[in-house]
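User: Hey, my collaborator sent me this sequence without any context and asked if I could get a structure. I don't really work with proteins. Can you help?
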Amino acid sequence: MSDSDTTKKGICYLVGAGPGDPGLLTLRAKQCLEMADVVVYDYLCNIDILNHAPVTSERIYAGKKAADHAIPQDELNDLLVKLSLEGKTVVRLKGGDPFVFGRGGEEAQELYESGVPFEIVPGISSSVAGPAYAGIPVTHRDHCSQLTIFTGHEDPTKEDSALDYSKIGSSEGTKVMLMGVGQLAKVTQMMIDGGASPDTPVALIRWATTGNQKTLVGKLDDIADRSEDVGFKAPAVAVFGEVVKLRQTLNWFEGRPLFGKKIVVTRTRSQAGELSARLRCLGADVDEMPTIRIEPPENIKEFAELVQDSHKYSWIIFTSPNGVDSFFDMFFKLYKDARSIGGAKIAVIGPGTQKKVQDYHLSVDLIPDEYVAEGLVKKMLEVGSVENETILLVRPSTARDVISEGLTEAGAIVDEAIAYQTVCESEDPTGAVQRFQAGDTDLITFTSSSTVESFIDMDLPIPDHLIIASIGPITSKTLQSAGLRVDIEAKESNIPGLVSAIEDYFIELEED
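Assistant: No problem. I've predicted the 3D structure and written it out in structure-token form, which is a compact way to encode the shape of the chain:
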């Protein structure tokens, strides 16, 4: 290693994580996370965002709750400098926007003074996103054309406040306060003393933009008492002004069918995204708690040899998206041209697997009407005789033998390519298991028998109120064999079918 290599500086990205909804993360923020060697993140960052970082990256929790910092700011500044000077790509992930009432400016100054390259990646601030998700536009031509954003939590070491709340109260337009729930009585009284009308509409929005969002509406002279009566806690955004009245017609988020429902997703980290995103679109508060992870097969050499000979088969059958990825990861290590797969027809067990095959720019020749192994065998036999047909079945290490046995009995010559194995997820980097143990989850989803089996092995408490949703009959059978009831079963064994079944379940509950 040369001297230049050992003295190479890294870079620190000061990244805004947005207000809470992971869908509001910017593309540039995602790019930075994907490059990260280290992620230093705050309390208000949605932990699911960390899934964009490489699995090999180091994650450091910096805390940053009021009066409760996991790492004091001076030590945090030193840590960012140290990691960057070691040549690492550091992402400092901050809730909202790094420069809106955060200490991103101070951190950037420290990096500059230490000669560390840095980049500022703005994020969507809760000062505008929070009101928007509560159905409150911070400006409106019929109500106001001025917006004031202020903090209710200043540096506690300052002798005098830089804020005159009485002047803020007397100013025109909408006012938005961040980090001030604990000072609400003081702030509202000073605003009234400054000339603000006691009848000014006020809204408090807690955990804004997430499925756990709570909104409390009142007036300037009673919102502090209302807040105390219901135990309204931080983190929250406060909105003052006539625009709050527009919430009556513009409250688009809190009326969604799964709003406020806490749902746990047990798929692997790499696969949880689609299910989580669909549930969040319906307003759910989603927590990803993978019970399994995907690892290479035990006999990788045997798998490679079968992939190498894949062009010799009449059919290639894929039973899962993971199998497709594993197959083509190996295929393109062996071949540089996709045409080397030859003339084999491709069959898949369901639309999710079909889409994954299509991602590799290949067409699917057969997909069953029922997205289960039995349906695939039935469909293949309906298409024509498989006698003496050579079939490569790409499957996980643990799976039912329905396909191989059914096609072999029909005269086919079936070789099984074990593409991967599913193992219990032993790590909990986001603390999802601990949150599940708290017992406030409304619903848990299972998308395969392996997710069920690994969940059982985790020996977690299952509260009586917990609703269990299954992707289809095979997964349901595994749940029932483990002594668990199945409250929801998808009519179509895929992710859209599962989400639709969950939505229908809660709609019917509301109607009852």
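In plain terms: The radius of gyration is 27 Å. You can pass these tokens on to your collaborator as they are.
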